[in-house]
Amino acid sequence: MSKGGAGRRLIVFAAVLGVLALPAAAVAHLERPSYWPDPAPDASVQTAAGGKVPDLRSLGSAVSGKGAGEARVVCQGRGGWKSLSLLAESIEAARAHGYRIRPSQPKLRLSRWDALKLLWQNVALARRCDYNEIQPAVNDSHNNDRVVVMPGIYTEPTSRARPLNDPRCAGMTQQDSGGGKTPSYRYQVTCPNDQNLVHVQGRAVPDAPPPSPPLENRQGIPDLGPCVRCNLQLEGSGVLPTDVIVDGASDYESDDPEARPRTLNKHVILRVDRADGFVAHNFTVRGALEHGLYIEETDGYRIDTVKMFWAADYGNLTFTSDHGLYTDCDGLGAGDAVLYPGAAPETGEQADKSFYPDAPRINTVVKNCDMRGSVLAYSGSMGNAVRITRNNIYGNTAGISTDTISAGGHPGFPADSVQIDHNYIYSNNLELYKPNPPVEPRIGILPVGVGIFWAGHNNGAVYRNWIWDNWRNAAFLLSIPDFLVTPEGNVNPGGSCNNATLSTSCNNRFFFNRLGQVPKGFKPFPEMYAFGNNVGATSGAAPNGVDFWWDEGGIGPVVKNCWFGNTGPDGTEASVTGPGAGDGNDVLPSNCPTSTSTGDPVKVAYLLSCFLAREGQAPPEQCDWYTLPPKPGSISAVRKQEAFADGAREFLETARAKQLEDRIGELTGIPDSKPPE
Hints:
This protein is α/β, with parallel strands linked by helices.
């Protein structure tokens, strides 16, 4: 890009955006008005349900019958012969070649004794097999029970045959706060396979309908019935999660479990609704028109050793649910995000301690997972107090995103208190905004080549991560003006920002991260390159484009954002780059208590141009988010950065820049929004 071209582009941005007014960006799917469950255990169940992450029960206990509840077995072939044959093949392959639960981990070995024990357990289970589909086994289950699924691909033909928009449930919708009609809990229970291949009804439907319009206070489910399937465990009995596939699609490109489907038949593969204490273990969900594994209004859940492939929206969507754990999971092919704990409870800095007496606390943990080959690895609109730790996040358009843009249907504004620590976040350079992409994007507002994208977040901590080879940015922090968002439900007091125009992007700390460095001993693996992902160096220095890009408050003021103790490609703090070219007063403050910023007209113009392009109100070429920047360190990358900086300086001399700067001053109450030189 020429110097003049960069300047002209920024002038056009400011001309369009000088009034700083935009329609709200509607990037979320439609949800019924949801409520956070009571975080206390439900003692009406023999083994109290909820109040904590449920324990994982061993496969051996299903065979022995030890512990609470009954085990129901699902298999393929008379007497389970087909399932046993498939298991024998999986055992043989694992013994001969080793196996991986996740692509990034070293190979695991299956000992002779473990192989014999697993085979014996499955033979014993086959003798008790009474089902060849999963849904009937779930329907027959009660509190504390479990459903064990033996190896095979389960297409659930009975469920597939159920019509979408079944007339029986036409009157069982709820009106959300925006006036849209959404399927109610009664709808899901009455027509469980209208949208869902497998549906888990956790609680009875009470006689009283849900409140309409929805309550402003979303703490506690107002139409909650007694437990009917709480503490349910659904598990596969194979060596690998791919030994048991719950499949909503057809016409695959190959027999590989990761192959792309040509036809998607059901909106949700497995929906878990108000089922406190639910455990999903050792199986794969594949091929959804919307979501693979969907958990809603549930207190206490565990997603353990589960794979999620080819969901047009989310591999997993967990919504308004508490006491959650994801561990040893893997996902790809999501048109939005692999994992999405949306509207996670307000247990962070804005917690109501009369409802959450143990707050502040983390309510959801995501650890030891691979999130790859998707538009986003992780997302969570209004996803409060989630910890993302010890994961491998690679090969996506962008890595982690927690935002406050998608407020409609998402209580908990603004998002706060997320912790991101001890992760490997690398090579998120997958180009999907192009004709005939290998994964079809369902969202159009993301910059390609970013490790962490925080669009309006408070009180976040990003620390002790290795972040390398993301060609645009390691981490991207921007504010969301309040006029872009309509919060759903009450907004609790106690947020980090305290001004009339901006509630987001305060008190975020980025510290002790290693940037642009590949960890010693890291070994590349084929899945990093899937779908043509762009990968730079796999050892030594592997720079990010700009390590920390920050909008400096946008229309500010924002406070207490800080960056300290981070090291760059050469192992020193001096080689860390950021916060990106703007009005010339571009620094990353390191002192958290004193950090204050009041906005940058160049960055405001740049950001809003991309929001307008996303909304179709400006040409897409006016936003560079949709194309991958050149490889960091290349001549092309240097030239592009220099051209943008020149264009920014040129723009600042225009009347439009002055107009935008004055408007920022009006909104912030600070006439001269620039800090003194």
